[in-house]
Design brief:
Layout: E1 6-7, E2 23-26, H1 34-47, E3 51-54, E4 70-74, E5 76-77, H2 81-87, E6 90-92, H3 97-105, E7 113-120, E8 126-127, H4 134-141, E9 144-149, E10 169-172, H5 187-199, E11 205-208, H6 212-219, E12 228-234, H7 236-243, E13 259-264, H8 268-274, E14 280-282, H9 285-288, H10 291-296, E15 300-305, E16 308-310, E17 315-316, E18 319-320, E19 323-324, E20 326-327, H11 331-340, E21 345-349, E22 353-354, E23 359-360, E24 362-363, E25 379-382, E26 385-388, H12 394-403, H13 407-423
Parallel strand pairs: 1-10, 2-3, 2-7, 3-4, 4-6, 7-9, 9-10, 11-12, 11-15, 12-13, 13-14, 15-21, 16-24, 21-25
Antiparallel strand pairs: 5-20, 7-8, 16-17, 18-19, 22-23, 25-26
């Protein structure tokens, strides 16, 4: 049991806890400690104090109206963070998600103040609730650690609260946690989902993200059996498969019988389901994204979105026309491990067009970085079909990718590919 004195939110003030040019690390996604982050933004606005904030994935609007004195750092412009990135004062650490915890642990990424969220059990025990990630490692190095103890957050298994973690203030949470509600799939997303479902064998272990397209893909798996879950995220769509017995984790090599995730991002019903549920574990990213752990899973199938794919198979998940969009995240961790897993596959999904069908997402040359390189790409899926790219030549890759591009762009892509070949000699 952890001894603490809870401060009521209206009595808590950052006061002298914040110093100019501090780097402040906030819990991310649905584990954002809303009581603390809202106080924090208000304090920075009142004092016009210059700080840099590491925000991770954002699903709240907390920072959308932050004062100009606040600068931001993240591992990607993911979720609502894209809006902050668009207005400027936003920088990115271009690293795999699996390495972030180590960068805070060894001091390569500084942490002066850490704001995190915790759940509390009836016995007074603490749990990290909705996420177990680099924020924990940052807290071990920080000058100031403030924990929001939120009675509305589910108590989850998987990561034991470190009794030696020094905490400077315990604040009672005043807000229910951020919810991420299921998205309504478009016809395009449903078509992609049905293609992906045809690639997933019974008994596979899945990694899937969040959003309308990942949700559609999970819903398309209702007829499958014996699936497992080892993912960065568990949300409502995965919960529906668990409840239906489709995900039973019976064929997993690691953690048989248990759904493993790094974060829980869903609605209140998902939070109620995972509360004190031994069939779900929220594990630290050092485990969930560890290549050795992932590669040991039987038939690991990883499914990740992309912004664009070029005709050589390179995948851009980070930037479009100079603007940050998305990020590396766990893409490289999961995609590479899936190729090493026995019977595993790495699946990249994207709609064939963007900008109201005025632009193709299958392109001759990327407009941003190659997040996933030619040697790592495996399968690419659009609403027009499936392109199997593993172990085939560059010419065959281009041919297969053009075949799943939108029909109105195929002739142009063929001409651009021929031009590229001529220019390369």
């Amino acid at each position: 049991m952890t001894l603490m004195t809870l401060i009521e939110p209206e009595q808590f003030a950052f006061g002298n806890l914040l110093r100019p040019d501090d780097q402040v690390i906030c819990g991310q996604a649905c584990a954002e400690p809303l009581t603390l982050t809202r106080h924090f933004v208000a304090e920075c606005a009142r004092r016009q104090i210059s700080v840099q904030t590491f925000v991770g994935t954002l699903f709240s609007d907390t920072f959308e109206h932050a004062p100009s004195s606040m600068r931001f750092l993240s591992y990607g412009a993911i979720g609502q963070a894209a809006k902050i990135a668009h207005r400027g004062g936003f920088d990115i650490v271009s690293e795999r998600y699996s390495r972030l915890a180590g960068l805070f642990a060894n001091g390569a990424l500084p942490a002066d103040v850490v704001l995190l969220q915790a759940a509390i059990g009836d016995d007074g025990s603490l749990s990290f609730g909705l996420a177990s990630d680099y924020v924990i490692d940052a807290a071990r190095k920080a000058r100031v650690v403030v924990v929001e103890v939120n009675p509305f957050v589910p108590w989850t298994y998987g990561t034991v609260w470190p009794e030696d973690l020094r905490v400077d203030a315990w604040v009672r949470g005043a807000h229910k946690p951020v919810e991420l509600l299921p998205g309504q799939a478009t016809r395009t997303e449903m078509a992609i989902a049905n293609h992906v479902a045809a690639l997933i064998p019974d008994g596979a272990t899945l990694q899937v993200g969040v959003g309308a397209l990942p949700d559609a893909m999970l819903r398309a798996l209702q007829g499958h059996r014996y699936l497992g879950l080892h993912s960065g995220v568990l949300g409502d769509a995965a919960l529906s498969l668990i409840s239906a017995g489709v995900i039973d984790n019976s064929r997993k090599v690691c953690d048989a019988g248990v759904s493993v995730a790094n974060t829980i991002c869903g609605s209140a019903s998902t939070y109620r389901f995972v509360h004190r549920n031994k069939g779900v574990e929220v594990r630290h990213s050092n485990f969930t994204h560890d290549a050795r752990v992932l590669a040991r899973q039987y038939r690991l199938h990883t499914i990740n979105g992309a912004l664009e794919v070029d005709l050589s198979g390179q995948v851009n998940c980070e930037q479009l026309r100079g603007q940050p969009r998305g990020g590396i995240g766990g893409l490289l961790d999961f995609s590479r491990a899936a190729r090493e897993s026995q019977g595993g596959r790495s699946i990249t999904v994207l709609p064939a067009t963007a900008a109201g069908a005025r632009a193709s997402r299958i392109v001759a040359s990327l407009s941003g970085p190659a997040t996933l390189g030619r040697a790592d790409v495996d399968i690419v899926v659009t609403e027009y079909g499936i392109a199997e790219l593993r172990d085939v030549s560059q010419h065959e890759r281009a041919k297969r990718l053009i075949a799943i591009a939108a029909p109105s762009f195929r002739a142009r892509l063929e001409a651009e590919y021929r031009a590229l070949k001529r220019s390369s000699g």
